[in-house]
Amino acid sequence: MAFHPQTSHDAPRAEINMIPLIDVMLVLLIIFIVAAPLLTHAVKIDLPVADSAVVDMKPETIQLGIKADGQLLWNGESVEEARLETLLREAANRAPLPELHLQADAATPYELVARAMAQASRAGLEKIGFVSKPEE
Q: CA 100 to CA 61: how far, in whole Å?
């Protein structure tokens, strides 16, 4: 008598049943195919026509130059440091607020540039840009 291991046909299977998953995915696919054209439908409205020009309010730019010897240039004109503060305050009161473009010589001490930036900030100018010469 030989002993054979008994195999039962009633043992649980270790396979995943994919049929219900495929059925659900096909139903979802059909729902999306039917619903997609409904999402792109737009309501047609007759809008009134008005002739108007686009208002382009670009802020004014102010050129502030600082030479290496400390000379200040306001839009190309030489100004004293005391007069610079009043010019900065007047510029800060304009609407829209102008942009300050700071041009400094390569040999200008940092102290002069920092002083000019501090004066502009105290006056209320918020947008300060540095102008440089591009490399060739």
A: 6
